[in-house]
Amino acid sequence: MLEDKVAIVTGASAGIGRAYALALAAEGATVIAAARRLSDVNTETNTLATLVAEASSLRGRIYAHTCDTASEPEVINLIEHTAINFGRIDVLVNNAAVLWQIDALDVSGDVWDQMMITNVRGPYVAIRQAARHMKQQKSGSIINITAGAGNFSPKSNHPKMLPYAVSKAALNRLSYFMAAELKPFGIAVNSLSPGVVASEAALKANPNVLSAGTHKPATPEVLGPALVYLAQQNSETITGEVLHTDEFQKTWPKVS
Question: Is 164 a catalytic residue?
Answer without folding.
Answer: yes
